[in-house]
Specification:
Blueprint: H1 2-7, E1 19-21, H2 24-27, E2 31-33, H3 39-44, H4 49-54, H5 68-84, H6 102-106, H7 133-136, H8 139-165
Antiparallel strand pairs: 1-2
């Protein structure tokens, strides 16, 4: 891995991948790295799919965006990545527009690690609190009472109607 890193110096070891939801009901609240960015995400971030493949952005032409939320999140990830990106010029004598300056090239650091811009876990843990009287009520009793009142609702209404008729 170290030899590969030295050989590809300015490039990251791994490609940049999108954030996607895990499949199935059991895991769909979790996020993971996907195979590649969809064409719609690349268009929204003003990145050409062919250019994206040359600067280390994974592209998956088969992927569809099924929610606006993930589309926006991945466009934001792409924009952040492209703002951090340092593109070395192919020809050092005549750099093109958008290529890095000599100072940027000198201060460039290679991304090593499992993922480029890994996904941050949403840290929403429950905090401890004092137990109230409402919490001390039995859940079974509450459910049983609600079930029986729903079951007997029609009978109660019928008896009230009969009393009013008399």
């Amino acid at each position: 891995r170290l030899i590969k890193a030295k050989k590809n110096f300015p490039r990251p070891l791994r490609n940049f991948r999108p954030s996607v939801n895990c499949p199935t009901v059991r895991y769909n609240m979790k996020k993971r790295l996907g195979r590649g960015f969809s064409i719609d995400e690349l268009r929204a971030a003003d990145v050409n799919p062919r250019y994206a493949a040359t600067v280390g952005v994974s592209v998956d032409h088969r992927r569809k965006n099924r929610s606006e939320e993930t589309l926006r999140a991945n466009v934001q990830r792409l924009n952040e990545y492209t703002s951090r990106l340092v593109v070395f010029p192919r020809n050092k004598r005549s750099p093109k527009a958008g290529d890095a300056t000599k100072e940027q090239m000198a201060s460039a650091v290679q991304q090593t690690g499992q993922a480029v811009m890994p996904i941050q876990a949403a840290g929403s843990k429950a905090h401890s609190r004092a137990i109230t009287d409402a919490d001390k009520k039995s859940a079974f009793q509450t459910l049983r009472l609600a079930w029986s009142s729903a079951r007997l609702d029609g009978l109660k209404k019928k008896k009230i109607k009969e009393k009013e008729d008399k």
